[in-house]
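Prompt: For my understanding, could you write out one protein's sequence and backbone structure tokens?
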Amino acid sequence: MTEKGDGITSTLRDTFEEHRRGRQDQSTNLTVTPEAGYVGDEITIEGSSLPENQGFELIWHSVRGRWGVIEGNEIHGPQYQPRTEQIATVRTNASGEFSQRWEIPEDYGGDHTIELRTSDGNTLAEAEFSVTAWFEIDRTTAELGETFTVVGYGLGPGVERSNYQIAWDNGMVGFITGVVNRGTATAEVRAVGPPGEHVLQVWRNYRGVPFLQNNTQSPFGPVAGERQSTWTVEVTEQSATPDPYWVDPMYDEEALGVHLPDPDRETDAQLEISPTSGQAGDTATLSGKAFPANTEIDLVWYSHGGHRPLDIDITPNAKPEILPTVTTDENGGFDHEFTIPNEMGATRPIMAEIDGESVAVTGFMMQPKIVDMSPTSGPVGTEIEFEVTGIGWPLYENAYHFVYDNKPLGYICSLDEEDGILRTKLRATGEPGYHFIDVYPSLFETETDEPNFTTKPHLSYWDNHPVRPLPALHFAFEITE
């Protein structure tokens, strides 16, 4: 169980303490030079006072991170368990010494134990190396509407080092975290206007907003040690007209089994869908096998209904009007092609029923889609209507956060829309020219309060979001004179 305050399990803490006590009783000398540094640094590990001309193993101690998620929905928070990997095998010389060079791999920040172990698993000596977080950007000049890619290394796992914030011109854009990617996180920050120089900066704070004493009086030291965490970047005039809207590329996915109801009756019947994921408007085929021959099968599409703030449980509810009744052939099979409707996102259960009793189930992973933005241009104050579909009901994908010209405004939630389309309206602001609205996944709520990830734009959504990599949605609006 995680103890509030440091984000490390008590089991892991006990392991670290055991390592420290063990070192006090060991006469073998194991040193690491330097004792602290960054992912990608090369260090020297040296041993002395060891048996001569013998082989040993060097072991790196770290953790394995993941999001604790219950039933593919409720987010407990980051969880970490001990992990080890072999650095190298070494052999001592006639004086009982060895020296080994090694590059620090992508891993979490903080203290890591380096263990010298015999071939039969006994520990001879230990030393520690501390990994400091650092950040890099892919470029310092970008056209209006393009992005700067920020990559952070050595993030986490403790509460104080799990939540970093990215700011643009002294306004927070969103957060990044390295929970599930061994401390590495990637974010794209939009190059927004006016053209000219702008400042991009990384901050750190477990409360989810920048702690402005990070680089002056924080007990945890500067954000990136002695390395850079602030950049002056240049936004140049755009060379092409941007699309009015687009969605990030998406992976092929499958429905989550935990969100599929069990059939009323166990049979040999099989129900499959191809493809297994996609957006509203895509064409899919439902195929049945091993059903009774020449029999009518009712195909039933399921949505989800409910309302968390109103304390109404979210449960699957049938939409019988979406799919038809089909008749199996003499072999008990069928194929039915249909168009994916505008619908709530995440797993969409599909049941096959005979005489009102379900006998087989499959699922389709519904992915986000932009239906429309209207208008696409106008003067300051223009009311813009956004229409999207495929936003899911689980907590890790229920709240998408609107960011206007790198300024977070607020979030939208997937509700039980009658036509499956989620709508919201914003007012156009800014100088004449193009302005960009990025809509990022967030975490609607988590069980643990620290670190505070909730309802904030998650900029490292692509490589560190819980359960599945969700896409962001993007819009471009032109302010006219």
